[in-house]
Design brief:
This protein is α/β, with parallel strands linked by helices and 352 residues long. The protein has two domains: 233 residues, 3-Layer(aba) Sandwich (Rossmann fold), CATH 3.40.50.300; 106 residues, Udp-n-acetylmuramoylalanyl-d-glutamate--2,6- Diaminopimelate Ligase, Chain: A, domain 1 (3-Layer(aba) Sandwich), CATH 3.40.1390. 45% of the residues lie in helices and 18% in strands. It contains 15 helices and 13 strands. The strands form three sheets. A six-stranded parallel sheet has the order 2-5-1-6-7-8, with helices on both faces. Strands 9-13-12-11-10 form a five-stranded mixed sheet, with helices on both faces.
Length: 352
C-alpha cells in the first residue's frame, strides 16, 4: 500500500489528522508508520510531532529518522539540497519497510522548499504518495487556494485521496457544507469530511503563546495549560472594551502593562491570560487579582503590534501525554471523516 501525504496550511490540524488516521488504520489491522520529512529548524530529533507519534503509535524508529530534515527561513544559504533529499529518501525507505501504510505529515506550509524542489507536492511525487489536502477555511479566499492547489496536483499527475475541511468554526459549518463542498464537487475535487472546530485540539494553550512570545510569567505558572479560544487587543476605550470582554470566552487579552483599569476589567470576565506588552510591569493590584483568579499574566517586551504578529502564528499542537487531544483526534476521524474512502484510494493506487 502507498503512503498518504497530508498537506495543509499552518494551523489546519495536519498532525492531529495524521495521528487520528494512523490510530484508526491500526484499529482496522493495518501496520502504520509516521514520517515527517521536513521539520522546523532547531527541532530536529526534538521535533514535538515526532515525539508525539513515537509515543502514541509506540514506534521504535529514532526521532531523527522520522524527521530527517529541519530547515529555517534562510535555508538556501546552506546549499544542502542533495544532502537533504538523500536523507529523506533513505529515512523513507527504512520507515516504510514492513508496514502497510506510511502517514506522511507535510511541512508547515505546502510550498516550503519549493526553490529546492522539496515542497510537499514535489516530495509526494518523489515518494509516490497519495495526497490528502487539509483545508482550514476562514473565508472564500481559503477555498480559492484549495481549488488552485487541487488543480496544481492534477496538473502534476499526483493522486489525491480528497480534501478534508478541518477546524471549521460553527458560523462557517453551514456554508462549508452548503457552498464550499458543492463548489469542490462541481470541479471534480473530492471532499472526504468536514470536521467542526473543537477547543481541545483547535485552541492553543497559554503555554504555546508563551513559547512564541517569551518574556516573563508573572502569575499563573501552574495554569499554563488553559485554552485560548479568542484574542482581544485592549487598544480601545474602557467603555468599548467592556462589550468585547464580556462577549468573548476563554480569551487572551493583549494590552499595555500601563492599562491597569482594562486589565482589572478583563480579570472580571472569562479570561485565560493577560499578555502585557511594552515591558511595562503592571500595577500591583493587577498581579494580586490575577493571582486570586488563577489567570496567567505574561509580560513581553515587544510592542503590541509585534506581539499580535507573533500570536497570529500560534497554533494548537497535541503534545506527548495529551490523552484528551489524542482521543478527540481519533473521534474526529471516526465521526466526521470518510476514512474508508481514503483507504479505498490508497488500495486503488497500489493495485494500479
Amino acid at each position: 500500500m502507498r503512503s498518504l501525504f497530508i498537506t495543509g496550511m499552518a494551523g489546519s490540524g495536519k498532525t492531529a489528522i495524521a495521528i487520528g488516521l494512523a490510530l484508526k488504520f491500526r484499529q482496522e489491522g493495518y501496520r502504520v508508520a509516521y514520517f515527517k520529512p521536513v521539520g522546523s529548524s532547531g527541532t530536529g530529533g526534538r521535533d514535538p510531532d515526532a515525539r508525539l507519534a513515537r509515543e502514541i503509535l509506540d514506534l521504535k524508529t529514532p526521532a531523527e529518522m522520522i524527521v530527517p530534515c529541519a530547515v529555517g527561513p534562510s535555508y538556501l544559504s546552506r546549499n544542502k539540497k542533495q544532502e537533504w533529499m538523500k536523507a529523506i529518501a533513505a529515512a523513507y525507505r527504512e520507515i516504510s519497510r514492513d508496514v502497510d501504510i506510511v502517514i506522511i505529515d507535510g511541512a508547515t506550509f505546502p510550498y516550503l522548499l519549493a526553490a529546492d524542489e522539496m515542497d510537499s507536492v514535489s516530495l509526494a511525487e518523489k515518494l509516490g504518495s497519495v495526497v490528502l489536502n487539509v483545508i482550514k477555511v476562514k473565508n472564500d479566499f481559503d477555498l480559492d487556494f484549495a481549488v488552485f492547489f487541487n488543480s496544481f496536483l492534477a496538473g502534476r499527475g499526483i493522486a489525491c485521496a480528497g480534501n478534508l475541511f478541518s477546524h471549521v468554526q460553527r458560523p462557517l459549518l453551514a456554508k462549508t457544507d452548503g457552498v464550499y463542498r458543492p463548489v469542490m464537487d462541481e470541479m471534480g475535487y473530492r471532499t472526504v469530511g468536514i470536521i467542526p472546530a473543537r477547543p481541545e485540539i483547535a485552541s492553543p494553550t497559554v503555554a504555546e503563546f508563551y513559547e512564541a512570545l517569551g518574556g516573563e510569567i508573572l502569575t499563573g505558572e501552574d495554569r499554563m495549560d488553559l485554552l485560548v479560544e479568542d484574542v482581544i487587543v485592549g487598544a480601545m476605550t474602557m467603555e468599548s472594551a467592556l462589550q468585547y470582554l464580556r462577549r468573548a470566552a476563554n480569551k487572551a487579552v493583549v494590552l499595555g502593562g500601563d492599562r491597569a483599569d482594562l486589565a482589572l476589567a478583563a480579570l472580571e470576565t472569562n479570561t485565560s491570560a493577560l499578555i502585557l506588552t511594552g515591558g511595562f510591569y503592571p500595577d500591583v493590584k493587577v498581579v494580586a487579582r490575577a493571582t486570586e483568579k488563577g489567570v496567567p499574566v505574561l509580560l513581553v517586551h515587544f510592542d503590541t503590534y509585534t506581539a499580535i504578529e507573533r500570536i497570529a502564528e500560534v497554533s494548537r499542537h497535541i503534545k506527548p501525554g495529551d490523552t484528551r487531544g489524542v482521543r478527540v483526534a481519533l473521534e474526529n476521524i471516526e465521526q466526521y471523516c470518510n476514512w474508508r474512502e481514503i483507504l479505498a484510494v490508497l488500495q486503488e493506487e497500489r493495485s494500479g
